[in-house]
Amino acid sequence: MSNRITIEQLRKTPLQATQAIPLDQLQMLIEECDDVEKMVKADKALIQSVLDHRFGDDARRLRMGAGKDTGTVSIKCGDFVVRSELAKRTSWDQGKMPEIAKTLEAMGENPFEFLDVEYTMS
To answer: Is 102 helix (H, G, I), strand (E, B) or coil?
Structure first.
């Protein structure tokens, strides 16, 4: 039998009494929670993958039929309504940003009205 505190025991312990719990035991509980969190995240991703596989083609067809590439569509399946959300994602080539800034400047525009610049140091 272990003298190590479990998360169930911690939940039942009055806050004042938790002050006596050794830090190494609290650290182990944090690590256990991190592991559980990773498993839950992986499980949710697996379930999402199953749903995507099952309803992805229907959702794409519905979006195409509505003349849109992104957005939300609903699919009726028995007593359930499955909602498929596809966010609009903007992407750009970070290496071309200085060139874009120069082009804007050449057009008489202030590039900083359109671009956010972030400086970092390694």
So the answer is: helix
Query: What's CA 77's distance to the chain center, in Å?
Result: 26
Three-class secondary structure assignment of 10-63: HHHCCHHHHHHCCHHHHHHHHHHHHHHHHHHHHHHHHHHHHHHHHHHHHHHHHH
Q: How far is CA 116 from CA 11, 103, 110, 119, 122, in A?
A: 45, 16, 12, 10, 20
Separation between Cα atoms, residue 1 and residue 29, nearest integer Å: 17
The pLDDT tens digits of the residues spanning 42-62 come to 999 999 999 999 999 999 999
Q: What is the pTM of this model?
A: 0.61
What is the dihedral sign for C-alpha 23, 25, 31, 37? negative
